[in-house]
Amino acid sequence: MSRALRGGRGDGVLDAEFRKAIDEGLFAGAVLRVERRTDAGAELLVENAWGDALRSDAGRVPMGTDTIFDIASITKIFTTTAVLRLVTTGRLGLATRLESIPGLFDARVDPAVLAALAAAIGGKDISSLLCHSSGIHYWYPFYARRGESFEVILADVLARHPPRNEVVYSDLNFMILGRVVEALTGKGIDAAVGELVFAPLGLSRCSWKAPRGAVAATEFGNRIEAGMVADLGLSFGGWRDSGRPITGEPNDGNCHYFFGDAAGHAGLFADARDLCRLGRLYLDDGRVDGAAYLEPHIAAEASRDHGGARGLGFQLGDNYPGSGYGHTGFTGTYLHVNAPSGLVIVLLANRLHVGTPRDLNPFRKGISELALSLFGRTEGP
């Protein structure tokens, strides 16, 4: 596994920043990959790994540049890409309303439940879910009611928390979009995203359920999420062992305990190289190795601010300096696509694999600013 910076420029200052962060306990280890778009494809500017992928009583496993990560909410960008591919091929529209998608919800469910869902969100369109303007509630631990259907629980959540007329970053939006992809393809979200995204983009290291290589550990059990469930006055008796790090399973509770390790909002495993390739799709106006994959205007819509610093799937704003866009993941992952500089910046860190997890956003932003200062100039001396 290579652990060397490529190109030499900025080696010392980048190395110092990552080593300091590890010493301060911000994460156990990390991978940084920076690529620049070129006419020939991509130029690799930085590829390095620091620290440990796993720390346990049995010892340590060093981080490698090809270490696989649970990318958590960056899964939403894969779901977004699958949805936009369906839009490009004419099987769906950004203005398509949920009520017009056959098979979205299980027809065997109590008709009263289906009627409640139609009344609450049937008029929401695909675009509103992608950019989180649907106002649908942000989160609920569906696994606390295992044995009940997604439809029954969702209808109850919507009755308790009616959609608001504002932007609400919501996992539920992408759980529903995952169901949209399944309904239109007739396949599970894992198989559908594999066919719609992995294969045409050549993402050989992405996977659901079975990471394709050495994987970085995440949290020791679901300590943080258990606290969130308790704060809601709910209980759950199936938590993973808090004395062991989670490896090779999605950290996200809904994805793991309720959806069987694959959902529209979380569950994917990937390495830095494949995430850079996904980012380049949007830098290249929806093309893959020169071939059309997304309509250019649809790819452009993904990075346009639709309100609340939200694009279609993507986030804009302070986390992405230099007028960039991207997404973060709860486990410590980060994708930044920066059109003005032609850079894709991927920072993967196991921030939960420490004693006391902390906010990683200031570090992410600082590394992006540093990368832009080192590599952002595309012309001139």
List the helices and strands and how they pair.
Layout: H1 11-23, E1 29-38, E2 41-56, E3 59-62, E4 69-70, H2 75-88, H3 111-121, H4 126-130, H5 150-160, H6 171-185, H7 189-201, E5 207-208, H8 223-231, H9 253-258, E6 268-270, H10 272-283, E7 287-288, E8 291-292, H11 296-302, E9 315-316, E10 325-329, E11 333-338, E12 343-349, H12 361-375
Antiparallel strand pairs: 1-2, 1-12, 2-3, 4-6, 5-6, 7-8, 9-10, 10-11, 11-12
Describe this structure in words.
With 381 residues, this protein is of the alpha+beta class. Helix content is 34%, strand content 16%. The protein contains twelve helices and twelve strands. It has helices at 11-23, 75-88, 111-121, 126-130, 150-160, 171-185, 189-201, 223-231, 253-258, 272-283, 296-302, 361-375; strands spanning 29-38, 41-56, 59-62, 69-70, 207-208, 268-270, 287-288, 291-292, 315-316, 325-329, 333-338, 343-349. The strands form three sheets. It has a seven-stranded antiparallel sheet, sandwiched between helices. The chain has a three-stranded antiparallel sheet with strand order 4-6-5. A hairpin with an 8-residue loop joins strand 9 and strand 10 (325-329). The radius of gyration is 20 Å and the shape is globular.
Number of strands: 12
Low-confidence stretches: 1-7
Written as H for each helix and E for each strand, in order along the chain, the element string is: HEEEEHHHHHHEHHEHEEHEEEEH
| Average residue pLDDT | 95
Please outline what is shown here:
The chain has helices at residues 11-23, 75-88, 111-121, 126-130, 150-160, 171-185, 189-201, 223-231, 253-258, 272-283, 296-302, 361-375; strands at residues 29-38, 41-56, 59-62, 69-70, 207-208, 268-270, 287-288, 291-292, 315-316, 325-329, 333-338, 343-349. It is α+β, with helices and mostly antiparallel strands. A hairpin with a 2-residue loop joins strand 1 (29-38) and strand 2 (41-56).
